[in-house]
Design a protein that fits this description.
Two copies of one chain form a homodimer. Chain A is mainly alpha-helical. Chain A is about 60% helix and about 5% strand. Chain A binds a DNA duplex through helix 3 and helix 4.
Chain lengths: ~160, ~160
DNA sequence: ATAACTGCTTGCAAACCGCAACCACTCTGG
DNA sequence: CCAGAGTGGTTGCGGTTTGCAAGCAGTTAT
């Protein structure tokens, strides 16, 4: 980790925390892929991250206050969970997804999530963040009667598939 | 430049285009700082980018379709302007700024823009993008009577500087 | 004619990335 | 009790990227 920021600019601060080839990918898999464990992140990675890189990124994300490490002892299954700062990267993910969708060629299956996140807008992001707070931080959702964001994402996805497109 | 994407995920696609320590900083200075020329970007950089890094980032951004290079011949003042894809990074900038504002320590003067961008929401982003399309792409704004977003941002910045704090 | 400005390039050391192999430890089934 | 699979990593090594300082060919201003 670097010792002091290059400047006091908020955009620069975020770039220093997340601006590399892997941090956002790891975070994406934790948020949308539900991955919690080292081996999960390593084996099911779409992009094929190497174990030493994953190790260093996880350390950096914990040090940067985006993830928390729950150690269960040597050789025993530990877990990484999101912090509040980690949960709040959801709008960044949505913005990155929208841009990639428009300006890069992507595969249909992997694009659905970004499309739904864009169509759902800030309301859906807030629902997703509420749900992440529940599963990662143990904070009950503000409105438990509301359908879960993940449910809405799946429902909309299945509808999109049914529509053929 | 890399030859083929690591995956078809839109988030990954954006990370591959912008996920390094400098690309977003350069783009930020073009968008919010109004910089158009190599020496401008080099000398007035808040973070102190090196000339060879700036050179390589500009090439990558042009190759990636985010900037256009207008060459005026050797030794003559050329210019870099935003493409439509470049203009559409504004929502990403806003999301990065909001996160940095909340989860990192920033200086007052440099935070003002991010604050205003957050308060203004998607409407202000659209205004700013309209204005960028005008100055960089020559596309007239849809509503010329509306106050310019850049004026609001610049005014807020200069007021914050004047206030010292 | 001189000085300053133009957008870079080059050289070199340090840091980071990517790949493959390896490791100490635990848990599970027989 | 023991073998085998699973746990979260570390180590070594070569290639790429970054950071710093200096230099360079051509143009513009004085």
């Amino acid at each position: 980790m670097r010792d002091e920021p290059r400047s006091g600019c908020p955009i620069n601060a975020t770039v220093e925390a997340l601006g590399d080839r892997w941090s956002l990918i790891v975070l994406r898999d934790v948020i949308f892929g539900g991955r919690r464990h080292f081996r999960d992140l390593l084996a099911h990675s779409e992009e094929g991250i190497a174990s030493n890189i994953l190790s260093s990124r996880l350390k950096a994300l914990v040090a940067g206050g985006l993830l928390t490490r729950h150690d269960a002892g040597r050789g025993r299954r530990g877990a990484y969970t999101l912090t509040e700062a980690g949960v709040q990267t959801v709008p960044i993910m949505a913005a990155l997804g929208s841009w990639g969708l428009r300006h890069r060629t992507t595969t249909r299956e992997l694009s659905v999530r970004a499309e739904l996140l864009e169509q759902g807008g800030p309301e859906l992001w807030a629902d997703l963040m509420d749900e992440l707070r529940e599963t990662h931080l143990g904070i009950p959702r503000s409105d438990p009667d509301r359908p879960r964001a993940s449910e809405r994402l799946r429902a909309a996805y299945e509808q999109a598939v049914a529509e053929g497109r």
